[in-house]
Design a protein that fits this description.
Strand order of the largest sheet: 1-4
Largest sheet: 2 strands, parallel
Structural class: alpha+beta
Bound molecules: zinc ion
Order of helices and strands: EEEHEHH
Radius of gyration: 14 Å
Helix content: 25-40%
Distance between the termini: 43 Å
Number of strands: 4
Strand content: 5-15%
Number of helices: 3
Length: 95
């Protein structure tokens, strides 16, 4: 699989690497390149419905195939950032 120009993908952690999701309420999806099971947070699923998912190792492999001078752009939505911040706050309160 190669990533065409201007394509958008969700990049997610593999379930086999992170048996528990970082963000509570995350659902599993499938990496479009290797078929591994991955976590997708509720905010990401809601913000980017229907967007294909890549696991982190497949994303890293694809970035290495980009022509010289081209770079992948990575974005995090405000909702996803709030989700991560709230998860970290909740963890701190429990400890
Ligand atoms: Zn993959």
């Amino acid at each position: 699989m190669s990533i065409p120009d201007e394509s958008i993908y969700i990049v997610s952690m593999r379930v086999r690497d992170w048996p528990k999701p970082s963000v509570p309420g995350s659902a599993t999806n499938t990496c479009g390149a290797c078929g591994d099971e991955v976590w997708v947070s509720p905010a990401t699923a809601k913000s980017l419905p229907g967007v294909p998912v890549l696991c982190v190792p497949c994303f890293q492999s694809q970035v290495k195939t980009l022509p010289a001078g081209e770079k992948a752009e990575i974005y995090i939505t405000a909702k996803s950032l709030r989700e991560v911040a709230q998860t970290l706050i909740n963890r701190r309160r429990r400890n």
